Amino acid sequence: MRLSFIFFLPLLFLNCEDTQSKKKSEPTNLQVKPKQEQPIKIISNKEAEREFPLLTSKNAMEFFLEYEKHNKENKVRITTDFGVIDILLFDKTKFHRANFIFLTKQNYFNNTQFYRVINNFMVQAGNSDDKKTARKRKHIGKYLLPTDTKRGYKHDRGVISMPSGEIDNPYKLASPYEFFIVQQLGGSHFLDGDYTIFGKVIKGMEVIDKIAAVDTDNADWPLKNIYIKKVEIIN
């Protein structure tokens, strides 16, 4: 069996062939002080520059090769509507680790969703139908990462892996914004060799099981949205 993932605009969906997304201020009686004019801040060209280049498939590998040298973090905490999941990222898959750390530091995953879940198989996350997510992607860039499948890792229960990014993608280049976690007891080893495993759950598999068990529609989208509240680096 093979796992294929399909893009739909404006929201990306990834599908499997074999199986089975004001407060109003109270008025006060306080006297308002006259507004003082604030000095105009002149933004220099240096301040206006991006903190990182707009990423493309042409420059992403070079960027992450340098990025991973200076950003060695390898543990993240995913806080969801169902609880907390801690993940260890593997040093051997350095580009994929660096990519996940980079996106975490950019707050990309915050308020994205577990948008596709298949009980007894996997849960998939990192996307959303919120326009803010699309704007984040536009700011970061459009790029794919090469697969890195010869590190000895298997799609055992609890591993985090990166899906392919496009239908017309014979080399199964990875979509950097999404990820899936294998929930199946005994693993999903038919995926081995096609998708890059870059980490594993070290705490919170019971949360994965709860997410996988929710009711879904015919496209495996949970009937009630399941949000990632935040992703943060931990020690």
Textual characterization of the structure:
The protein is of the alpha+beta class. The chain has a single domain, classed as Cyclophilin (Beta Barrel), CATH 2.40.100.10. It is built from five helices and ten strands. It has an eight-stranded antiparallel sheet, with helices on one face. A two-stranded parallel ribbon has the order 1-6. Helix 2 crosses helix 3. The radius of gyration is 20 Å and the shape is globular. The two termini are 37 Å apart.
Shape: globular
Distance between the terminal alpha carbons, to the nearest Å? 37 Å
Question: Mean pLDDT, as a whole number?
Answer: 83
The figure for the number of domains is 1
Structural class: alpha+beta
Low-confidence stretches: 4-48
CATH superfamily: Cyclophilin-like
Widest sheet, order of strands: 4-5-8-7-9-3-2-10
